[in-house]
């Protein structure tokens, strides 16, 4: 019988459900994290409408089902996600979950969007803890480091300020996140601050597999590895991407074709996207944004039961025929260039 993780709380968890969940050692942290984890990016208006009641129900159901890793950030809803998550966690034993948040990305206004300074980092950490109603977070991450004016600022200001918070007991471990995996690898290689985890999003998905090139580097450092957004921020969902998505038109068109093929065959493309991520070795947890219980149940079903024969046929078709047409499968540099053009203007 599988061992229960240290986050198991008798009387709160569904023990049978927890025993069904697969857990992986999260690098050198000592934490054992659930293979599927909960992203709170949708606990705000980033991806359309949401409700506090549904978010709360999702958090409770996810935790009781064995998910024990939750990720949020000040950027999501510009503080709303953390505030909503704090309300969702009220009354839940602190031992029952690991929680990660971030620093450095904040406001919608491009001039206020990023701040990698030590001063702002310290302020942000305290603000996050207040919103989350917690004394500490398990993982404190520097958000989207590729947007820094120079990686030197991240290395010499942001990460030392995060380390200072760690030394004061406000965070247990330190991480970095971003879209260009090469930048993450360079930061980890150059950092004098011990980095414990790395989060890259949409880079091990049906669409793009760039992270595979860098897994040996991350594993050599014994990092906890988070594969976030296997649905590529809505591209691989029945609803499609939000308006703000930075994707190129070519990729958008191919994803639309894949979505329409799935719809025609009565298959949810989101299930196929998650199935792909769950069957790739390397990352310790797959971080998926979920803000309602229907979405959670659908994802949990894929985790425990995989795909039906019909779904597998559709999966193989879109993987080997539709997505195989793409010559370039990422939008690296698009969002960063747009950001700096706007700031300079």
UniProtKB/TrEMBL annotation:
<dbReference type="Pfam" id="PF00248">
    <property type="entry name" value="Aldo_ket_red"/>
</dbReference>
<dbReference type="GO" id="GO:0010349">
    <property type="term" value="F:L-galactose dehydrogenase activity"/>
</dbReference>
<dbReference type="GO" id="GO:0016491">
    <property type="term" value="F:oxidoreductase activity"/>
</dbReference>
<dbReference type="InterPro" id="IPR020471">
    <property type="entry name" value="AKR"/>
</dbReference>
<feature type="domain" description="NADP-dependent oxidoreductase">
    <location>
        <begin position="36"/>
        <end position="311"/>
    </location>
</feature>
<dbReference type="InterPro" id="IPR036812">
    <property type="entry name" value="NAD(P)_OxRdtase_dom_sf"/>
</dbReference>
<dbReference type="InterPro" id="IPR044479">
    <property type="entry name" value="LGALDH-like"/>
</dbReference>
<protein>
    <submittedName>
        <fullName>L-galactose dehydrogenase-like Protein</fullName>
    </submittedName>
</protein>
<dbReference type="InterPro" id="IPR023210">
    <property type="entry name" value="NADP_OxRdtase_dom"/>
</dbReference>
């Amino acid at each position: 019988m599988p061992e229960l993780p240290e986050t198991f709380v008798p009387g709160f968890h569904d023990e049978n459900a927890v025993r069904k969940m697969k857990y992986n050692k999260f690098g050198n942290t000592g934490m054992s994290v659930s293979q599927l984890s909960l992203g709170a990016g949708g606990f705000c208006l980033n991806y359309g409408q949401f409700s506090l009641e549904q978010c709360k129900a999702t958090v409770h159901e996810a935790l009781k089902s064995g998910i024990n890793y939750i990720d949020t950030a000040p950027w999501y809803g510009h503080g709303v996600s953390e505030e909503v998550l704090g309300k969702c966690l009220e009354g839940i034993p602190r031992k029952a979950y690991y929680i990660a948040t971030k620093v450095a990305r904040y406001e919608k206004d491009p001039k206020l969007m990023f701040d990698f300074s030590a001063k702002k980092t310290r302020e942000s950490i305290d603000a996050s803890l207040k919103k989350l109603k917690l004394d500490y977070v398990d993982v404190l991450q520097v958000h989207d480091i590729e947007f820094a004016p120079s990686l030197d600022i991240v290395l010499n200001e942001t990460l030392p300020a995060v380390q200072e918070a760690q030394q004061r007991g406000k965070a247990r471990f330190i991480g970095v996140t971003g879209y260009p995996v090469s930048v993450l690898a360079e930061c980890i290689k150059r950092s004098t601050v011990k980095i414990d985890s790395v989060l890259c999003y949409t880079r091990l998905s049906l669409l793009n597999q760039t992270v595979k090139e860098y897994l040996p580097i991350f594993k050599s450092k014994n990092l906890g590895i988070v594969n976030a957004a296997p649905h590529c921020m809505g591209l691989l969902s029945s609803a499609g991407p939000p308006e703000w998505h930075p994707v190129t038109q070519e990729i958008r068109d191919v994803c639309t074709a894949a979505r329409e093929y799935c719809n025609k065959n009565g298959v949810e493309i989101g299930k196929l996207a998650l199935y792909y991520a769950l069957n790739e070795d390397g990352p310790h947890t797959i971080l998926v944004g979920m803000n309602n219980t229907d979405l959670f149940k659908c994802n949990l079903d894929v985790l425990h039961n995989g795909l039906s024969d019909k779904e597998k046929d559709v999966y193989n078709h879109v993987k080997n025929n539709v997505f195989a047409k793409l010559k370039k499968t990422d939008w690296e540099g698009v969002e960063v260039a747009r950001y700096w053009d706007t700031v300079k203007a």
